[in-house]
Write a structure and sequence with these properties.
The chain has one helix and seven strands. It is mostly beta strands. The protein has a domain of about 80 residues: Immunoglobulin-like, CATH 2.60.40. The chain is elongated.
Length: about 140
Protein backbone atom coordinates (compact mmCIF):
# COMPACT_ATOMS: atom_id res chain seq x y z
CA UNK A 1 0.00 0.00 0.00
CA UNK A 2 1.44 3.40 -0.92
CA UNK A 3 1.51 6.21 1.58
CA UNK A 4 -0.20 9.54 0.90
CA UNK A 5 2.28 12.40 1.07
CA UNK A 6 1.87 16.16 0.95
CA UNK A 7 4.98 16.22 -1.25
CA UNK A 8 3.38 14.35 -4.18
CA UNK A 9 2.74 17.56 -6.12
CA UNK A 10 4.73 17.93 -9.35
CA UNK A 11 5.48 21.51 -8.25
CA UNK A 12 7.40 20.37 -5.14
CA UNK A 13 10.71 19.10 -6.49
CA UNK A 14 13.56 17.82 -4.36
CA UNK A 15 11.63 17.65 -1.09
CA UNK A 16 12.08 13.90 -0.53
CA UNK A 17 14.71 14.56 2.15
CA UNK A 18 12.30 16.90 3.95
CA UNK A 19 9.70 14.14 3.97
CA UNK A 20 12.23 11.79 5.61
CA UNK A 21 13.02 14.43 8.24
CA UNK A 22 9.32 14.84 9.02
CA UNK A 23 8.98 11.06 9.43
CA UNK A 24 11.91 11.06 11.87
CA UNK A 25 10.39 13.91 13.88
CA UNK A 26 7.03 12.13 14.04
CA UNK A 27 8.70 9.01 15.45
CA UNK A 28 10.40 11.03 18.21
CA UNK A 29 7.37 13.18 19.08
CA UNK A 30 5.95 10.81 21.70
CA UNK A 31 9.03 10.79 23.92
CA UNK A 32 8.43 12.61 27.19
CA UNK A 33 11.66 12.02 29.11
CA UNK A 34 13.57 14.04 29.94
CA UNK A 35 11.45 17.18 29.83
CA UNK A 36 12.96 20.09 27.90
CA UNK A 37 12.48 23.74 26.98
CA UNK A 38 13.40 25.51 23.76
CA UNK A 39 14.12 29.18 24.26
CA UNK A 40 14.77 32.02 21.82
CA UNK A 41 17.79 33.83 23.32
CA UNK A 42 18.44 36.49 20.67
CA UNK A 43 18.12 36.97 16.92
CA UNK A 44 20.47 34.13 16.04
CA UNK A 45 20.57 31.89 19.14
CA UNK A 46 18.21 29.15 20.30
CA UNK A 47 18.76 27.33 23.61
CA UNK A 48 17.58 23.80 24.35
CA UNK A 49 17.43 23.04 28.08
CA UNK A 50 16.95 19.48 29.32
CA UNK A 51 16.11 18.59 32.93
CA UNK A 52 18.84 16.08 33.79
CA UNK A 53 18.70 15.97 37.59
CA UNK A 54 20.89 13.18 38.92
CA UNK A 55 23.07 12.97 35.79
CA UNK A 56 26.74 13.95 35.95
CA UNK A 57 28.60 15.45 32.99
CA UNK A 58 30.23 12.07 32.34
CA UNK A 59 26.76 10.46 32.09
CA UNK A 60 25.78 12.69 29.15
CA UNK A 61 26.90 12.76 25.51
CA UNK A 62 26.03 15.26 22.79
CA UNK A 63 26.64 14.52 19.11
CA UNK A 64 25.69 15.92 15.74
CA UNK A 65 24.80 13.30 13.13
CA UNK A 66 23.37 14.20 9.72
CA UNK A 67 21.63 17.42 10.85
CA UNK A 68 20.36 15.79 14.04
CA UNK A 69 21.43 16.94 17.47
CA UNK A 70 21.45 13.80 19.61
CA UNK A 71 21.67 13.99 23.39
CA UNK A 72 22.18 10.73 25.27
CA UNK A 73 22.09 10.11 28.98
CA UNK A 74 23.09 6.97 30.84
CA UNK A 75 23.79 6.95 34.55
CA UNK A 76 26.49 4.71 35.91
CA UNK A 77 25.13 1.83 37.95
CA UNK A 78 25.95 2.24 41.58
CA UNK A 79 26.16 -0.65 43.98
CA UNK A 80 22.91 -2.58 44.15
CA UNK A 81 23.09 -2.76 47.93
CA UNK A 82 20.63 0.15 48.29
CA UNK A 83 17.09 -0.52 49.44
CA UNK A 84 14.64 2.19 48.46
CA UNK A 85 11.43 2.86 50.38
CA UNK A 86 10.37 5.09 47.48
CA UNK A 87 12.18 5.76 44.22
CA UNK A 88 10.66 8.75 42.45
CA UNK A 89 13.77 10.15 40.80
CA UNK A 90 14.07 8.74 37.30
CA UNK A 91 17.42 7.08 36.67
CA UNK A 92 16.79 5.62 33.26
CA UNK A 93 18.80 6.18 30.14
CA UNK A 94 17.48 8.41 27.37
CA UNK A 95 18.09 9.56 23.81
CA UNK A 96 16.62 12.88 22.75
CA UNK A 97 16.90 13.94 19.09
CA UNK A 98 16.37 17.36 17.53
CA UNK A 99 16.45 17.93 13.76
CA UNK A 100 18.43 21.04 12.83
CA UNK A 101 18.05 23.17 9.73
CA UNK A 102 20.96 23.34 7.31
CA UNK A 103 23.63 25.69 8.60
CA UNK A 104 22.63 25.50 12.28
CA UNK A 105 25.69 25.15 14.50
CA UNK A 106 26.09 24.01 18.09
CA UNK A 107 27.60 26.99 19.89
CA UNK A 108 27.93 25.90 23.51
CA UNK A 109 26.82 23.22 25.97
CA UNK A 110 26.87 23.60 29.75
CA UNK A 111 25.19 22.33 32.90
CA UNK A 112 23.60 24.58 35.50
CA UNK A 113 21.27 23.74 38.39
CA UNK A 114 20.32 20.28 37.09
CA UNK A 115 19.73 21.55 33.55
CA UNK A 116 21.77 20.77 30.45
CA UNK A 117 21.80 23.79 28.13
CA UNK A 118 22.75 23.52 24.46
CA UNK A 119 22.99 26.75 22.47
CA UNK A 120 22.39 26.64 18.73
CA UNK A 121 23.47 29.40 16.36
CA UNK A 122 21.31 30.18 13.37
CA UNK A 123 23.16 31.26 10.21
CA UNK A 124 22.82 34.83 9.02
CA UNK A 125 19.87 35.30 6.66
CA UNK A 126 20.72 34.87 3.02
CA UNK A 127 19.52 36.78 0.03
CA UNK A 128 15.97 35.65 -0.76
CA UNK A 129 15.55 37.25 -4.18
CA UNK A 130 17.87 37.29 -7.12
CA UNK A 131 17.51 37.70 -10.86
CA UNK A 132 18.85 34.93 -13.11
CA UNK A 133 20.45 36.25 -16.30
CA UNK A 134 19.48 34.56 -19.57
CA UNK A 135 22.38 33.69 -21.88
Amino acid sequence: MSRLSIFNSPFLLGFDQLEQVMDTVAKNAGEGYPPYNIEHIDGNTIRISLAVAGFARDDLAISLEANQLIIRGRQQEEGSDKTYLHRGIAARQFVRKFVLADGMEVGDAFMENGLLHVDLKRPAPQETHRTIPIR
